[in-house]
Specification:
By secondary structure, the chain is α+β, with helices and mostly antiparallel strands. Helices cover about 50% and strands about 15% of the residues. The chain is built from 17 helices and 13 strands. It has helices spanning about 15-40, 45-50, 70-85, 115-120, 165-175, 185-200, 220-230, 240-245, 300-315, 355-365, 385-415, 415-440, 450-475, 480-515, 520-550, 550-555, 565-570; strands at about 50-60, 95-100, 100-110, 125-135, 255-260, 265-270, 275, 280-290, 295-300, 325-330, 330-335, 345-350, 375-380. The protein is elongated and about 110 Å long. It starts with 16 loop residues before the first helix and ends in a 23-residue tail after the last helix.
Length: about 600
């Protein structure tokens, strides 16, 4: 008979339990060290435990489109708002409908709460509109001389913000023309509106007329009214900024307010919407290594690419400011880049961005196309007092459940309960450390359902130990000694544990996918602890059991070990015997 190869242990790794224990020990030390190094030594709590902000939004349909407030559009809005908030790193934000026309947004404390509140309240549709005219925000004083203000020059970037350069060139033009006032006058603004409205699409600024007495062409009442609104619009007044976009349809010429790179308000005359937010496939703020600046990149859908190509081909031939398109959200211009060439499938916006402003604009462009407009009904601060009481009650219930499990293990399994308790401790430590690390990593926040999931996991983990222990006992009842019983029991127990944990993980995954809000916290925790159960059983419980089987206490079947053959009703040890036949030959069927 060939001798077994040196160094190869029995199936299950009986000869190498130290390697598995070293591996899980290294993982525990590394994760714990990472937790302390990150400075986040406790899991981040959800709104029901730590408090936060609750925002109520009410859907508002455009006149004549009341049917737009329906279940489909409300569910779409919930998904977009949730992605918008989570795009800021605010995970565990709860967004759900309430009734027919309300959406509730709960933002946990300790996240980008203020920034999230601002973007949640920014809920209108997103449009790209051509810029027809721009003027300072202050309400102008009519100037009888009608001296026009200098116009800024075109930007030098492919899709630049076009405001810094325009401001600088405007100042140079002011010095050259020696204009008596730096701001636009009512007369010049009225002319700009009239000229911009003459053509159906953005047109270059008209060339100067021959010297002589200029004649003012007649204008229709609608154009005259728009001239008056643009001339008297004061974007420094919050009420006017809020009311200016009410009732404006995408196909209408519109007035809007926005800030230049220095933070000063400007007012815009904008043409009909050419592209809407639904035409954007993706947008994000990125750092351009070559130019050393933050930019916003945009990718359009198939239909959006055609629309964007059409509008940029028109704008690229115009003079500033009519070579610019305004990105309008909730009636406010969030950016107004200029165009110098035709663009289609993708584009970038560059200018006076820092990291925060670039990422904010990318987030708005990605998640800003809501099917409805919303108005903020209420913004309430949620205290954690009630959640704290519920958490305390849940922890007490968990402690009672854990205590009952330990008592059962001690009474029924005796010495084996030591292995089970150690394994539960390792599983609890890994769960806590990973939850603490997931807070800053992916924004995971611990809420009450998640705590319930962790408590349920105690039973799942204990069940794995019981399966393995009972398999070992079955082998001992068959007459085998402990060391062979440990190894023979492992393959069958391993299959049962894997199947059981797979079913639990599958249920958690399905629950996580089909649910929203707090229930996802339960599903996530249940799935996490199920995976950790497999890790602990394979890398800790089995190796420890292998090592303890070599000790006299367990190996000789001490009464308190939980593996006493007499207590288990074991059969006599299996031995091979020879019985001779009457003729003196050995019966091959007997052993």
């Amino acid at each position: 008979m060939a001798a077994p190869k040196k160094g190869r242990g029995p199936a299950g790794g009986q000869g190498r339990p130290g390697r598995a224990l070293a591996l899980i020990l290294i993982a525990m030390v590394a994760l714990t060290g990472g937790m302390f190094w990150s400075g986040h030594t406790t899991p981040r709590l959800g709104i029901d435990l730590a408090g936060g902000t609750s925002i109520t939004l009410k859907a508002k349909a455009e006149p004549g489109q009341e049917s737009a407030v329906n279940e489909t559009n409300m569910n779409t809005a919930v998904g977009i708002i949730e992605r918008r908030v989570n795009g800021l790193g605010v995970s565990e934000a709860e967004v759900q409908t309430q009734g027919r026309e309300n959406i509730i947004v709960n933002i946990p404390k300790g996240t980008n709460e203020k920034q999230a509140r601002e973007q949640v309240g920014t809920t209108a549709q997103l449009f790209f509109r051509p810029v027809l005219a721009v003027a300072p925000a202050e309400q102008p004083v009519p100037n009888p001389s009608g001296t026009p203000s200098p116009k800024p020059s075109a930007s030098g970037a492919t899709a630049d913000k076009g405001k810094d350069s325009g401001k600088k060139d405007g100042e140079n033009g002011k010095k050259d023309d020696k204009s008596p006032t730096p701001t636009a006058t009512a007369t010049s603004q009225g002319r700009a509106v009239s000229e911009a409205l003459k053509a159906p699409s953005p047109t270059p600024t008209p060339s100067a007329k021959p010297s002589g007495t200029p004649s003012t062409p007649p204008v229709d009442p609608a154009t005259a009214a728009l001239q008056q609104k643009f001339a008297t619009l004061n974007c420094l007044d919050p009420k006017q900024r809020t009311a200016i976009g009410e009732g404006v349809k995408p196909a209408d010429t519109a007035l809007a307010c926005g800030k230049d790179p220095s933070g000063a308000w400007e007012k815009y005359l904008l043409g009909p919407a050419e592209v809407d937010g639904k035409d954007i496939d993706d947008a994000k703020g990125v750092f351009d290594q070559q130019r050393g600046m933050w930019i916003v990149t945009m990718d359009f859908t198939g239909g959006g690419s055609k629309k964007f190509q059409t509008i940029t081909s028109k704008l690229s031939t115009q003079a500033d400011p009519q070579n610019r398109f305004a990105i309008v959200l909730d009636g406010e211009v969030v950016s107004a880049p200029s165009v110098r060439q035709t663009l289609s499938a993708s584009a970038e916006i560059s200018g006076s961005f820092n990291q925060q402003s670039a990422q904010d604009l990318g987030n708005i462009l990605s998640y800003g196309a809501l099917p409805l407009s919303f108005e903020t009904q209420s913004v309430d601060t949620v205290t954690a007092a009630l959640g704290g009481e519920q958490l305390q009650a849940g922890l007490i219930a968990g402690a009672i459940g854990l205590g009952l499990v330990i008592i059962y293990l001690v009474v029924y399994y005796r010495g084996l309960s030591f292995i089970a308790i150690l394994s539960l401790g390792v599983s609890a430590l890994l769960t806590y450390v990973i939850m603490a690390l997931l807070g800053p990593a992916i924004g995971f926040a611990l809420n009450l359902p998640a705590v319930c999931g962790a408590i349920v996991a105690i039973g799942i983990t204990a069940d794995s130990f019981i399966v393995y222990f009972e398999r070992i006992r079955d082998e001992i009842r068959e007459g085998r000694t402990l060391r062979p019983a440990v190894e023979r029991a492992w393959p069958r127990a391993r299959r049962t544990i894997m199947v059981s944990d797979f079913v639990s993980f599958l249920a958690a995954a399905v629950l996580f996918i089909v649910t929203v809000g707090k229930v996802q916290g339960f599903a996530f925790t249940l799935g996490l602890t199920t995976v950790l159960d497999i890790v602990v059983v394979f890398l800790f419980t089995k190796p420890v059991m292998t090592l303890l089987a070599r000790t006299k206490f367990f190996g000789n079947g001490h009464k308190l070990s939980g593996l006493d053959p007499k207590s288990l009703g074991a059969k006599p040890p299996l031995r091979r015997t020879r019985r001779t036949s009457p003729a003196g030959s050995v019966d091959p069927k007997e052993a």
